[in-house]
Backbone:
């Protein structure tokens, strides 16, 4: 796992293709990341093009986990919030390639996002994850606190409703 490198991503043809492939794979495997199965590669590419354009404006950071030339994971740190919430950031779209799950990629991505949020002066992180087959165990292991559950929040990629669990974590100077 030491060979995994985490970096902020920017738009290039190779990066967009790798992100689109990861998103399609995640949705096909049942990952609840806002899309339905089957997800067309063109739709996945369009999502990441828009996301990386927003990142180029400083409104978010898309982090990628690379094993050599293979993108094996990603997470997005949302930074664009109203004037009364300059202290907050949100974790979104955590995805790990199926073949790399359970090997610490998600943990490394979340910790990198936390460090980046602290560097940007944020003191509170929030996120949500699907009640069924979500990453609640990972988030709780990393110190996030469950705020509550919203039932029937979204459709699962292969159909049927699932709730969402809302989590928060104090970071930086306020985490002590």
Residues:
């Amino acid at each position: 796992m030491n060979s995994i490198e985490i970096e902020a991503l920017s738009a290039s043809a190779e990066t967009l293709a790798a992100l689109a492939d990861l998103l399609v794979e995640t949705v096909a495997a049942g990952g609840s990341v806002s899309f339905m199965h089957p997800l067309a590669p063109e739709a996945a590419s369009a999502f990441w093009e828009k996301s990386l354009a927003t990142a180029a404006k400083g409104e978010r950071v898309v982090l990628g986990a690379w094993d050599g030339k293979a993108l094996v994971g990603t997470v997005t740190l949302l930074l664009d919030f109203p004037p009364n919430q300059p202290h907050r950031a949100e974790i979104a779209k955590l995805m790990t390639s199926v073949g790399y799950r359970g090997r610490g990629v998600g943990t490394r991505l979340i910790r990198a996002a936390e460090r980046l949020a602290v560097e940007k002066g944020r003191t509170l992180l929030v996120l949500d994850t699907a009640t069924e087959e979500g990453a609640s165990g990972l988030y709780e292991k990393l110190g996030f606190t469950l705020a509550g559950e919203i039932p029937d929040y979204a459709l699962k990629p292969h159909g049927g409703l699932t709730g969402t669990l809302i989590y928060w974590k104090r970071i930086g100077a306020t985490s002590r």
Observations:
- The two ends are 29 Å apart (CA to CA).
- The chain has a mean pLDDT of 96.
- Residues 13-28 form the longest helix (16 residues).
